[in-house]
Amino acid sequence: MFVFRLENEDKNTSKERSILQTKLTKLAIQIGYVGMIVATLTVLVLIIRFSWEEFFVRRHTWQSKYWNRFIRYIITGITVLVVAVPEGLPLAVTISLAYAVKKMMYDKNLVRHLDACETMGSATTICSDKTGTLTTNRMTVVEISIGDKHWKNIHDRSCLKQFQLADKIKDILFEGIAVNSSYTSKLIPPTDKEIHPKQIGNKTECALLNFLVDLNGNYEYLRQIHTEETFLHVYTFNSIRKLMSTVIQRSDTIRLHMKGASEIVLQKCTKIVNPNGEITPLTKTDQKYLLDNIIEPMACEGLRTICLAYKDFQSMPADWNDETSVFEDLICICICGIEDPVRPEVRQAIQQCKDAGVTVRMITGDNVNTARSIALKCGIISPIDRFLVLDGKEFNRRIRPNRHADVDQDLFDKIAPNLRVLARSSPQDKYLLVKHLVESKQSIMREIVAVTGDGTNDGPALKKADIGFSMGIQGTDVAKEASDIILVDDNFTSIVKAIMWGRNVRDSISKFLQFQLTVNMVALICAFVGSCIVKESPLRAVQMLWVNLIMDTLASLALATDLPTEDLLKRKPIGRTYPLITFRMGKNICSQAIYQLTIIHLLIFFGPDLFDRKNGQPDADGYIPAEHFTMIFNTFVLMTLFNEVNCRKIHGELNVFRQIFSNRIFCSIWLSTFLLQIVLVQYGSLIFSCVPLSFDQWMWCFLFGIGTLLWHQVRSSNIL
After folding, report:
1. Are strands 243-249 and 254-261 parallel, antiparallel or unpaired?
2. Alpha carbon of 355 to those of 349, 386, 388, 445, 563: distances in Å?
3. Which backbone phi and psi does 58 adopt, to 5 degrees?
4. Average pLDDT, whole number, for the chain?
5. SS3 for 314?
6. What is the pLDDT of residue 356?
7. What are the two backbone dihedrals, phi and then psi, of residue 270, each rounded to the nearest 5 degrees?
8. I need a surface site. Which of 106, 267, 407, 490 has the fewest CB within 10 A?
9. HEC assignment per residue over 476-532
10. Contact 210/199 with Cβ under 8 angstroms?
11. CA triplet 640, 645, 649: central angle to 5 degrees?
């Protein structure tokens, strides 16, 4: 008996045992029980039959030589048990996963946990971040509204020339952008091969810095004047505030600069500046006008809207932590529309996910209109869909009986099937979505959830998901440590490749299971029936070990090395409750076992007459190697070899030879195993209890072996 454990992990940091590990361990235990029962019955039948014939029929008395016979029976039973347990399966699983991990590196997937490969192939839903995963993460200010003027396409040099501002407002705008940003955010001038400067740090801040540079501003000079050590107070950005502020000491006043989500910052403003630098009142009506006619249209075009504001203090506030009083009566400087273009390849990748039956959900901190626009561009939703696009507040309202109650799984299950976009979401919202998708039992096959994350706060969601993807470029160390796979290029298309590899690994394991269990079933029944009828197993212990250990080990490598194809993405996901052995696999195993057992028993009982050879069944002196039982062993091995070709296709495909020569490892192993079989039959008589066979006998064995291919075609064509 054996238990699968694909890797050694720290008990305090590892996830629960994977779906694959759980299923394989359960299967191994079940097979072990069957093997133990059959092995025990085989030994009992042999001992009882021998005792009956010797002591009751022939009336012999006990002789010491009988101990050798009993020991041989026990060895046969142990061999049956060894044959029953698929000890090649752990090797096949490990080889499949290791091979996939190596190849996935070329597809920009750095796998941290081996079993995540197979789990990804079963994924039913992907909860993806927007920025950097679905988009290019190269942000650019493309629109700006100041006072009653609105400029578009300002990233275009020709349009930028028409953008005229008074020096007074430029000074405020430049200072607000330069100072109220993380000083780790900066631009590196482009090299000869590059067009745009390289953005380092927060991409939204880099977009604003680039806008400042385009207007001939110098953010580095302003940062030298106002160093971080001189800041009076800093309000960092978080998912609750959705804004950040920096307070600086100027020569004439204390100034607070603020930037953040437009609809939130705008509510705190009571004044606004115009392009000439004049300050005018900002009424609630004006705020609504800006919201309806500036912010929402920008958001509907897929732009992230950022509002910049400031406030001058005549004296130091009593308490900087009193944000209610500090963040009031601000002066709105401008509203910027920042574009983060959708990656050109993402739409096709998401369509591939849809074809594969995988639901893609987008989670973002942007407002609902921006999120909806990006989801439309990506193909996550379409204009005619009735899928839900919710913000964090509405999402929480719908999944809780009341504001302070815990999440109700039944309420969650009502909205989850149609939820496609979660906007203005916090890390807690993301965690709740992932957690309750994993725990949902609404679907019969149960959800297997993949999630992407790059921030420190994404750690809980990455750990809770069945497969966590962290970002290799933008991801924090905490996110990478919590994840199963690291996307080296932060690109959603790499997730699609992970799905393809995962399904390929799943198929590789299924191929080997079908092959291994067919071998084990035939060997088990042969050993038991032979013990009951022939007094000995037709396959000697050393012969079964050759089949079980050497061939299965090589077969695990051969069947694990087929490369994935896009046909894998045309099947629906299998989910959490799907069995390791499907109905089709079970039918293939049983049909091949029937064919092979029929041939073997024909050879046992009619072989001597058909081939005019001496009967090799054991007599009173025990088993003596003969051509009869050597043909049985050789035929069994060749049928197994040709069935290995059948097992390359497990979904009803008729052409089992398709792309066989593209897999050189399979061809090399198959040919090597065949040659080894010739050598041990012709020259391994002492070790393998064989005698050399003639050319005609080899041709008959070869014909019986090819019969497995023909039988597979008959069964797959549903002729019978």
Report:
1. antiparallel
2. 10, 19, 20, 18, 20
3. -85, -10
4. 86
5. coil
6. 93
7. -115, -5
8. 106
9. CHHHHHHCCEEECCCCHHHHHHHHHHHHHHHHHHHHHHHHHHHHHHHHHHHHHHHHH
10. yes
11. 125
Beta-carbon contacts of residue 582 (< 8 Å; ≥ 6 apart): 510
**Backbone φ, ψ for residue 536 (5° rounding):** -140, 155
Q: Count of H helices and E strands in the chain?
A: 27, 19
- Contacts of residue 169, Cβ cutoff 8 Å, sequence gap at least 6: 146, 273, 275, 276, 277, 333
Which residues is 272 bridged to in the sheet? Answer: 280, 332
Burial 55-85 (b: 16+ CB within 10 A, else e): eeeeeeeeeeeeeeeeeebeebbebbbbbbb
- The mean pLDDT of 560-575, rounded to a whole number, is 86
What is the C-alpha separation between 190 and 199, in angstroms, rounded? 10
Residue 191: Cβ within 10 Å count: 9
**Catalytic residue from among 10, 107, 129, 609:** 129
Find, among 411, 403, 415, 349, the residue nearest to 377 by Cα.
349
Active site annotation includes 429: no
- In a 13 Å sphere around the CA of 20, the CA atoms on its Cβ side amount to 31
pLDDT confidence tier of residue 145, bands split at 50, 70 and 90: very high
Distance CA 407, CA 397 (A): 10
SS3 at position 406: coil
The pTM score is 0.81
* Residue 551, token pair as written in the block: 């061939």
Partner residues linked to 338 by β-bridges? 141, 304
- Structure token pair of residue 72: 């041989």
Rounded to 5 degrees, φ, ψ at 573 are -70, 160
Nearest-5° Cα angle at 461, 353 to 132: 55
**pLDDT, position 28:** 80
Written as one letter, the residue type at 247 is V
Positive or negative, the CA dihedral 306, 455, 501, 28 is negative
Phi, psi of 552 (to 5 degrees): -65, -35
Q: How far apart are CA 641 and CA 646, in angstroms?
A: 9
Residue 1, pLDDT > 70, answer: no
What tokens were used for 635? 């035929």
For 56, 63, 276, 568, 617, the CA distances from 60, given in Å and listed in that order, are 8, 8, 121, 66, 22
Q: Measure Cα distances from 593 to 580, 599, 610 in Å.
A: 19, 10, 22
pLDDT reading at 496 higher than 90: yes
The strand ranges marked E within 564-702 are none
- Read off the pLDDT band of 158 (50, 70, 90): low
| DSSP string covering 425-488 | --HHHHHHHHHHHHH--SSTT---EEEEE-SGGGHHHHHHSSEEEEETTT--HHHHHH-SEEET
Lowest mean pLDDT among 157-166, 357-366, 377-386: 157-166
3-state secondary structure of 287: helix
Handedness of CA 677, 683, 685, 687 (dihedral sign): negative
Strand runs labelled E in 240-289: 243-249, 254-261, 269-273, 279-281
Amino acid in the structure at residue 616: G
Is the distance from CB of 114 to CB of 69 less than 8 angstroms? no
For residues 325 and 317, the answer to whether their CB atoms sit within 8 Å is yes
What would the two tokens of residue 609 be? 């007459």
Tokens of 411: 């309420």
How far lies 223's CA from each of 213, 220, 487, in Å?
14, 5, 34
- Residue with token string 């048990």: 81
By C-alpha distance, which of 429, 430, 449 is closest to 439? Answer: 449
What are the start-end ranges of the H helices in 546-625? Answer: 552-559, 583-611
- Pair 87, 512: CB distance under 8 Å: no
- Indicate whether 201 pLDDT > 60: yes
| Amino acid (one-letter) located at 637 | V
Distance between CA atoms of residues 433 and 420, nearest Å: 11
Report the relative pairing of strands 269-273 and 330-339 from DSSP bridges: parallel
